[in-house]
Amino acid sequence: MEIRHHGIAVSPGVAIGPAFVIDTEGVRITHQTVAADHVSGEVSRLRKAFEVAATEARENRQRITALHGPAIGNIFAAQGSVFEDPGFREQIENLVRSQCYSAEYAVSRVIREFVRRLEESALRSVAEQHRAEVRRRAKDFIDIERQILVLLQGENTEPFGELTAPVIVLATDLLPSETADFSPRTVHAFATESGGATSHTAILAGALEIPAVVGLGRFLSDVSGGDMVIVDGEEGILIINPDESTLARYEEKRNVERSRADRYDSLRDKPSATSDGTPIRLLGNIELAQEAAHCLERGADGVGLYRTEFLYLNKTSDPTEEEHFEAYRSVVQTLGPTRPVVIRTLDLGADKFSSVTDAVGVEKNPFLGLRSVRLCLRKLDLFKTQLRAILRVGLLGKVRVMFPMISTVDELRQCKTLLNEVKEDLEDEGIPFKRDLSVGTMIEVPSAAILSDILAREVDFFSIGTNDLIQYTLAADRNNENVAHLYNPTDPAVLRLIKRVVEAAEKEQIEVNVCGEMSGEPLYAPLLVGLGLRQLSVTPRKVPEIKRVIRQLRVDEAKRLADQALSMDTARQVGSFLRDQLRRILPEAAD
Ligand code: PEP
Ligand code: MG
After folding, report:
1. Which of 86, 112, 175, 450 has the least C-beta neighbours within 10 A?
2. Class of 466-591 in CATH
3. Which pLDDT tens digit goes with each residue over 411-460?
4. Of 283, 344, 347, best ligand 1 pocket probe by most atoms within 8 Å of the beta carbon
């Protein structure tokens, strides 16, 4: 039966394919059914797997009891009794016989149904202790499923990192480091129970150009590995076991998307300017060096944000100066000598963990902790290594350096002092570097927005990071679906801060850019232009869409629109006003 879940759309596109459920990691269920003459073979495989699992559980119980006492050993006793329960196994066998399900698929179907019922019962229960107990039991069953699947597949287990056939990844949550390992060739989409629109995992989905939906709430007990699923990254929908008419509709939607992408291609070489001739520079946000090429393919005018911390993820040791240099060089050479490349210094911490942040230890509030430039100013060697590489690569193109998460004037001054020290070191060592490297700061902490008039005197450019600016202004975690209703780019508090920053930049005649996800949404483009922005940095894939809106806009009209939005009281009011306006300006984008 078709089941739908609604979540937060974070990376557009439609993908249709078999589910790979991460909590059974390493076990991909490759086929749901078998030919009728294979049914008895499947039943024997199943019985054998249950026998081995029961023996292993008994052995584990004895071993663990000897080591840690009976209380811990009994966990395996509970699992063992499931493996030894003939009624439980028969339920699975019946599905194999009646539906010709493969042993793996039948195991998953029965266990997932069981888990779903347990979770429902936990939800109904008023006693916290009982709820916790039932949830623990549900987790035990997921473990039981994984054990039997591993036994059934034996040598054929396909570790997640080595997938050979396309799948759609379904998980409770994904870390940015896990997502960075996805290959778009095999992972055609992903969907997660938790997460928010501007989480770094979501941003990576955009970078890898795979459709993704997050914040779906509990759905993993409704799905078995190998189930057919659809991820609609436009509408934020996950469909499990779609019926025929849904499948046909989504195949059609996929075709329409492909033809829209072809249409956008024709915009690539057209200027990015409003209909009355004001140029609006469109730059690309990248996380991986290879995305520099995506910027050119989509007609971006340069790189407005290079998130260099992705060089650190999934590494056991820190990158050397040469590794930094090589990554930057490849980006700068791809972009050529005249297009700007803004290299942002490390923004590790918060949800981007690495060996560097592991050394800091667990923090209670990592988004408010030793993150980003704060971490760099503690680990000066690390920071200097990166700054040396940036200064050196500066000779090869139009490179700029940008500091993230600046929250005080002193912090920015410390970064600039360090940059000067690094220049002196390079000078002493006779290593060539860019002497007058352009220096900018991100404005993504409310204190920086409030002090932007002072900060504007200290730098050559600003880049407003709305992803963090929104979360810190509204005290709403950007990764937490429970507060996603508060996390709103149209909140009047956010609009006022953006306006303030643009005015401070105009007064000191420095450039100002917006590089948060907000700038890649057609809905906000008229507002941002109206607020005075003449540069936007967006996921490369979004460049054509934004250009299309800009080419329909007149600056005076955008200014009026921004003034009206600024006079409104609530995010909801502003949001619906902007939707009406976009419908008028470019109906196709509003759809
Ligand atoms: C931002 O905060 O808007 C931003 C661009 O930085 P990141 O998303 O990497 O935190
Ligand atoms: Mg940020």
Report:
1. 86
2. alpha beta
3. 999 999 999 999 999 999 999 999 999 999 999 999 999 999 999 999 99
4. 347
Nearest to 50 by CA among 25, 87, 75: 87
CA distance 294 to 306: 13
Distance (Å, whole) CA 401 – CA 244: 52
Q: Whose CA is nearest to atom 6 of ligand 1?
A: 465
CATH number, domain 160-260: 3.50.30.10
Nearest to 253 by CA among 270, 234, 236: 234
Angle (CA) 453-459-462 rounded to 5° is 70
Q: Give the closest residue to 231 by CA, choosing from 160, 167, 183.
A: 167
Alpha-carbon distance 255 to 237, whole Å? 18
CA 422 vs CA 324, 380, 383: distances in Å: 15, 11, 10
What CATH architecture is 33-153? Orthogonal Bundle (1.10)
Domain boundaries, the chain: 33-153, 160-260, 283-443, 466-591
- Identical fold for domains 33-153 and 466-591, yes or no, is no
Contact in structure between 537 and 304 (CB atoms under 8 Å):
yes
Model confidence pLDDT, tens digit, residues 248-274: 999 999 888 877 777 777 888 899 999
Alpha-helix runs per DSSP H in 215-320: 244-265, 292-297
Token pair 């204190």 is found at 447
Could you tell me the pTM of the whole model? 0.75
Which neighbouring-strand residues pair with 441?
Answer: 403, 462
Q: Are 306 and 346 in contact (CB under 8 A)?
A: no
Instruction: Specify the residue with its C-alpha closest to ligand 1, atom 1.
Output: 465
Q: Left, alpha or beta for 439 (phi > 0: left; psi -120 to 50: alpha)?
A: beta
Report which protein residue has its CA nearest ligand 1's atom 9: 307
Q: Measured between alpha carbons, how far is 307 from 404 in angstroms, rounded to an integer? A: 10
Mutation to probe ligand 1, out of 10, 307, 342, 473 (largest number of atoms < 8 A from CB): 307
Q: Which atom of ligand 1 lies nearest, measured to the CA of 444? A: 2
Question: What one-character DSSP code corresponds to residue 279?
Answer: B
Say what the pLDDT of residue 239 is. 97
273 secondary structure, DSSP code: B
For 283-443, CATH gives 3.20.20.60
Pairing of strands 3-6, 237-240: antiparallel
Alpha carbons within 13 A on the beta-carbon side of 360: 22
d(CA 197, CA 210): 15
Q: Which of 207, 161, 174, 212 is nearest to 190 (CA)?
A: 212
Pocket of ligand 1 (CB under 6 A): 203, 305, 307, 347, 444, 465-468, 515-516
The length of the chain, given as a count of residues: 591
Helix runs in 160-265, H state only: 176-180, 200-208, 244-265
| Per-residue model confidence as pLDDT tens digits over 41-63 | 999 999 999 999 999 888 888 88
Residue pointed to by tokens 């916290």: 128
> Which tokens sit at 540?
């490369």
